[in-house]
Write a structure and sequence with these properties.
Blueprint: E1 19-20, H1 21-28, H2 32-41, E2 48-50, E3 54-57, H3 59-74, H4 79-117
Antiparallel strand pairs: 1-3, 2-3
Length: 118
Amino acid sequence: MLEASNNNELPVIPGKRYFTIGEVSELCAVKPHVLRYWEQEFPQLKPIKRRGNRRYYQRQDVILIRQIRSLLYEHGFTIGGARQKLSGDEVKADSSMSQQIVRQLRMELEEVLDILRR
């Protein structure tokens, strides 16, 4: 296993659609039982479950797990603190996305207004 300070040395995420819990464990240097625990603690982490209750993680899940790992192991966050940080980041991302959409709509409406004034 990699040490907590070696998060930059984690393997590159392959270009696959789905990953098993064993593959994610190796990609993120976290044991499978820890991944199962994090699923209970972080509502954003929802792998697809198929027959036999097998978990299949997608690329965004692997990235999220690496973020959780970094917050907990490198930055010293508690589970609750990491959960709050991640949910706060989602709110900020949603807000900035909304602002971009509003800016784009405003630009398009100004273009329409210019056309109508001619």
